[in-house]
Structures are given as C-alpha cells and as structure tokens.
Amino acid sequence: MSTANAMKREVGKAAAQRVKSGSIVGLGTGSTTAYTIEFLGERLKNGDLKDIKGIPTSFQASVLAKQFGIPLTTLDEVDRIDIAIDGADEVDPHKNLIKGGGAAHTREKIVDCLADIFIVVVDSSKLVDKLGSTFLLPVEVLPMAMTPVMAAIKKLGGVPELRMGVKKAGPVITDQGNFVIDVKFESIDNPAELEKTLNNIPGVLENGLFVGVTDVVLVGEVVDGKTVIREL
C-alpha cells in the first residue's frame, strides 16, 4: 500500500471509531471515506458496533455500504443525523472546505450540514492556507443553464471549465443528472460570500464551498516513517 493510501486508511479508521451504537451516520464520498465505510462494516460484523443506519451521499457510498453490510436509510425516514464523515479536497485554517472532486458535493452538503457532528477526514496534502490554492471550485449546474452560468461566473472573475468524463465520451454527469463546472478564482478572499453569490446564479444547484460546517478535521500524516492522526 502506498504512503498516501496508508494515511487515508488510518484516518478513515480513526473516524469510524468515533461512531457510537444507535447512530444515524452520514456516509461521505471519496477514497478516504471509503475506508471509513469499510471499517464501520467491520465494527458491525464483529459486534463492536450495533444498530446504526447510514445515509449515503452518493451512489459510490451506497454501493460500498451495501458491500460492507451497513443498513441504509433516507432523510424521509429519520429526524436526525448524529454524525457525518466525509473527505475534502481542501481545508483552510478555519476548517472551511472545498469539496466536489467526486462530483457529489450537492448531496454531501445536504447530509453534512444536517449532522450534529461533521468530521472531515483528509491527508496532510489537503491542508491549505487559502481555499482555491490547489483545487478548482466545483459548481453543479443544470445542463440547460451551462452557457449562461459560465458567463455569470466569468463576470465574477472566475475561469470556468466544463468537467469532462474519463473513460466516457462527453461531460461528467452527477448523481442528480447535472453537469459540473470547475472554476479557477485567482483569490477566494471571502468564501462565505462567494458561496452564496454562486448559488444565487439561476441554474446553479450547489457549489463546493463548505463554510462554517465542519466540527472536527482528522488529518493523517507520516512522521518518522509512521502514520499518525492529529485533530484540528
């Protein structure tokens, strides 16, 4: 296993250890939270954890939960989410995030914002001084509105690009059947304001800025050849 995967595995496991029996758990999307889902399944299997239900944030999370034996539920059937665990593409010193590398940020934001406790799991490469430093900002948009939305984003100073599929001809299609526009901003000085401004553009469903949502960040790092977990 590569060093990066080892960090993801350990931090995903550490987050899974924080889930208590009887919890409704938001199941995030991505390579790090995939390990969290796996370890939650192991805890259920060995009896260390009982009576939990998961709310998946994507088809990926749903498939993994079924694979590892985690019962699923929906927001129509529960009145709370006790804890949500998810990854991030960038984390700033204020625990604000850019998410959406997996094109699941709309459902992730719904679930993560509803959770009593939202835990972010990342490796140290995801820590930045300022959002937008290393990762483009994903914006989910209705297909019919792609052109006017991109024009509006340009007026805000962003450089938009339609995300194209890999091993698929044409654009990436989200779980909701929409497109993703990845945007480069020279500087995101006020993430909270930009989040609202983008979401007010007609045709935009949601963007990848998560501001004031995160409770805990667990960071996996390699120190003296060993993987260690620290909390922000």
UniProtKB/TrEMBL annotation:
GO molecular function, one term: ribose-5-phosphate isomerase activity
Record-listed E.C. numbers: 5.3.1.6
UniProt xrefs under InterPro entries: NagB/RpiA_transferase-like (IPR037171), Ribose5P_isomerase_typA_subgr (IPR020672), Ribose5P_isomerase_type_A (IPR004788)
Annotated binding of substrate, by residue: 29-32, 86-89, 99-102, 126
Coiled coil: none
Family per similarity comment: Belongs to the ribose 5-phosphate isomerase family.
NCBIfam families: PRK00702.1, rpiA
Protein name as it appears in the record: Ribose-5-phosphate isomerase A
Species for this entry: Laspinema olomoucense D3b
Lineage: Bacteria, Bacillati, Cyanobacteriota, Cyanophyceae, Oscillatoriophycideae
Gene name tied to this protein: rpiA
